[in-house]
Amino acid sequence: MTDSAQTHDIPHPFKLENLQPGKPDPRGRIVRDILWSMPDFKIFKTDVGISPIFSDESEVAAGQKDAYFAMGDGIAEFNHLIHAMRPIWPVRVLLAGQSDSPAARARNHYERELARCIAQALSGKIEEARSALARLHDRLGARVSNRGRITHLVVNTALVTLVIICSLIVVWSDSDFEFGYNIKELAVAVMMGSVGALFSTSVRLRSMEVDPTVSLWMHIVYSIQRVLVGALGALILYFGFRSGIVTGLFQPLAETAPPLAETTVEGAADATAQPFDIYWLSFVSILAGFSEQLVPNLLESKTSDMDSVNENASSEPVPAPQVNTETTPAADGTDVGDREDGQNATPQGATPIFDSSRGS
Q1: Inter-residue contact 104 to 166 (CB < 8 Å)
Q2: Please, which of 145, 278, 294, 322 could form a disulfide with 210 given CB 3.0 to 4.6 Å?
């Protein structure tokens, strides 16, 4: 018999003795278990949560309702946390019908503790019930937070392992990238950036601030996001070095690796044509992945520099062109201003803006 088919069996008026496991409660919900039973109230469990049923005497029931409503905020927060303890739906499908699983046992424990707190409130010990509920909330919040930390570490490890495998496949292959990038250096940067993100998560795992009120799916999303930040940060820093925009402290030493910028007489070789030292590139990529703020701060600094240059360029007045009134003797003994062909000589050491010998 289905749950909906049993709702017509609700007795009127509903008495305490009518509340039994497997039968409907006053609202038609099937009672799964009775967690606390006293002569003038009961606390029971349905599929939607924990609920009390009050005394059959109206005056006693009115006092019990006031005490229960006084606990409303704490009970609502507890229910939110206990809902966050639920495993994600693939795990729920695998554990369907297994009431003795660790997650089910933990949930039953906390629900019975909540029933005890409600029983204290209905018995007139409201302050004791509030204190007990606050301690229960803290314990449950710590448990949910620890599960979130474990989720971060497990997801990070799995994702970084996948990135390492894919990067090694790229490094060991002989394929060339059609856009001209050094695909093997890109793979090393992404791989080591994700390793840096995993190391950062591992180092601060115990002190990591985790919101216990968010769902497990959100913890998984945050974990993926952390690895992406590390990999993309290393990739952006790599492009900064390759372009020559980022130099200075991170520049590899000349005796250990090729310098970032090197030109010949013909100008045929530059920083983009030389491979980076693999150990230097790995360390810098790990550093970019470890620190979440390194690359964002670097980009903000470069953006501020560009904004300052643009503001200075727009605020400076354009100088008026200067007319040279002095005359310079030409090779034929005449002054430049007196040349019949109207051509002026270029001052010694200056680069002409227009060169007639190059054509129009």
Answers
A1: no
A2: 145
Nearest to 56 by CA among 37, 46, 41, 70: 41
Asked whether residue 218 carries a pLDDT value surpassing 50, the answer given is yes
CB neighbours (10 Å) of residue 247? 13
Q: How far apart (Å, rounded) are the C-alpha atoms in residues 171 and 264? A: 30
Separation of alpha carbons 116 and 135, rounded Å: 13
* H helix runs in the chain, sequence order: 58-70, 72-84, 89-94, 102-122, 126-172, 183-203, 216-243, 278-290, 294-315
Closest alpha carbon to 113 in 29, 55, 19, 36: 36
Question: Who contacts 123 (Cβ-Cβ below 8 Å, separation ≥6)?
Answer: 38
Strands of the sheet containing 33-38, edge to edge, are 33-38, 41-46, 49-53
256-262 long-range contacts, Cβ below 8 Å, gap at least 24?
256/280
**Model confidence pLDDT, tens digit, residues 289-314:** 999 888 888 888 878 777 777 776 66
Domain boundaries, the chain: 18-91+99-124, 148-311
pLDDT (tens digit per residue) in 256-289: 544 433 433 343 344 445 778 888 889 999 999 9
pLDDT of 147 above 80: yes
Residue 329: phi and psi, rounded to 5, are -60, 135
Residue (of 207, 52, 30) closest to 129 by Cα position: 52
Q: How many angstroms separate the CA atoms of 75 and 68, rounded?
A: 9
State how far the Cα of 22 lies from the Cα of 332, in Å rounded to an integer: 120
**Burial call 204-230: b when 16+ CB within 10 Å, e when fewer:** eeeeeebebeeebeebbebbeebbebb
Question: What's the angle, vertex CA 250, arms to CA 249 and CA 255, rounded to 5?
Answer: 95
Q: In 3-state terms, what secondary structure has residue 335?
A: strand
pLDDT the model gives residue 182: 83
Question: Comparing C-alpha atoms, which of 85, 290, 91, 319 is closest to residue 196?
Answer: 290
Tell me the pLDDT tens digit for each residue of 96-121. 555 567 777 888 889 999 999 999 99
